[in-house]
Specification:
Pfam family, one: LeuA_dimer
Number of helices: 19
EC number: 2.3.3.21
Strand order of the largest sheet: 2-3-4-5-6-7-8-9
InterPro entries: 2-isopropylmalate_synth_dimer, AIPM/Hcit_synth_CS, Aldolase_TIM, Citramal_synthase, LeuA/HCS_post-cat, LeuA_allosteric_dom_sf, PYR_CT
Structural class: alpha/beta
GO molecular function: (R)-citramalate synthase activity; 2-isopropylmalate synthase activity
Strand content: 15-25%
Number of strands: 18
Low-confidence stretches: 527-538
CATH architecture of the largest domain: Alpha-Beta Barrel
Distance between the termini: 57 Å
Pathway: Amino-acid biosynthesis; L-isoleucine biosynthesis; 2-oxobutanoate from pyruvate: step 1/3
CATH class of the largest domain: Alpha Beta
Radius of gyration: 29 Å
CATH superfamily of the largest domain: Aldolase class I
Number of domains: 3
Helix content: 25-40%
CATH topology of the largest domain: TIM Barrel
Amino acid sequence: MATPVIIFDTTLRDGTQGEGISLSVEDKLKIAQKLDRLGVHYIEGGWPGSNGKDIEFFHRSKELNLTHAKVTAFGSTRRKDSKAETDPNLNRLVESGVSVATIFGKSWDFHVHTAIQTSLEENLNMIYDSVRYLKSQGLEVIYDAEHFFDGFKNNPEYALATIQKAEAAGADWVVLCDTNGGSLPGEVSDIVKTVCSKLKTPVGIHAHNDCELAVANSLAAVQAGARQVQGTINGFGERCGNANLCSVIPNLQLKLDYNCVSEQQLQSLTSVARYVSEIANVNMAVNQPFVGSAAFAHKGGIHVSAIMRHAKTYEHIVPELVGNKQRVLVSELAGQSNLLVKAQELNLDMSNETNQTKQIIEKIKELEHQGYQFEGADASLELLLRRAFGDIEDIFTMESFKLIVAKSPGDSVVSEAIVKMKVHGETVYTAAEGNGPVNALDNALRKALVQFYPDIRDMHLSDYKVRVINEKDATAAKVRVLIESTDINNTWSTVGVSENIIEASWEALLDSIRYALIGKTRIEPQADRQAQLGLVNH
């Protein structure tokens, strides 16, 4: 039977200390529910002694009906030369209503003298008194030994004395923190083994990523005897971040045969990682191991040819085990195998179209030479393939568009787009304003099409990126525009290239609209107007 490892998530506390990460109370509550479903054992919600937002979170978290995780509040040991019973931070932990308190104390004699400026003996008393007081209030206590590895390397006897004080006071867990993130896996392994031989209390690891070793250090600690891992989703955290639980959990479970979460919960890992990234409004790294969109993406033709025979040739695990999926990219490096895989995804029969396949590959290479990039624009690639095989209806054609961008003194810039197009042979003129020229064009296009395809109301642009291709040409340089669009069920990306940023945007925008309309049901405009009046049901 696999050895269990307890997962302690601190995304809502340590994760929010990362630059650019800010979560509202509502955000924290939503993420807590996702973490509970993932199967983490502890969710550190914040520091009630530091701000009102965290106090509100702890109050409202009682309504979440979590089925797996315990919510824990974070704080520090009592202040020097005071009593634990009257310490405001400790009492806020008690008043928060949680059943678990996580407190940190000093393990490094340098910090004792320099940071809190007290004696080594008083620091030991601070640790003992704080843990004892919280235990007397009926709380489970997790003691985080801050800077433990640096402290141990500098003065091992004193560092051990600090955690032995926590154990003597009744701590339920002793967690060793690599707070500065400067330790190496071999050091972590040796020190954790020593600590486990000295304590009866179970040991945990809290690693920071300043040397990009937080995951490696966490795995080394578990192999050396630690049974709790603290970290964050996507590695969010102060400076260079914390141990990334999206890598820690699958490595422990799939590679080292420890038990962290159920198989079904593990399959939700990718969706949880992307959900947290979306809520935090942080772009997730495409090459993030296990859960990134490129984690199982294949571009080189030789690789693709091999994975068609067996995915194990270029994939270290089955992507679905962590809720991800295999992707085949089509680019100037692509061979026939790449297109065959793409065609299978689209139910296009390319098996007997060798010459046509070669022509499509050459077309893609020519376009990429011009600056197009299809590996990040799957929707544009799909449209290109469907057109080549006559598998797509040309729903509309564009005749012209005009853009007016105006600004008066004291007023904001106003953009207006006027579009002339044919939809199923019917000429349509529309005009619309937007907060920029691309937004105005988007609004005008959808305004023209909504009377034929009402479902297009659910579509909107979710991201817009511009990349200068040949910087040496300065303002005359070509640009590549990537547009990401979303509706109720899907997200897709399209690409456009031109020396004119508006034209490149227009091209990507047209592809986005065309992709959105694949499979949509057309209605007669008059029927739509009647439906809006409640005269018919459609």
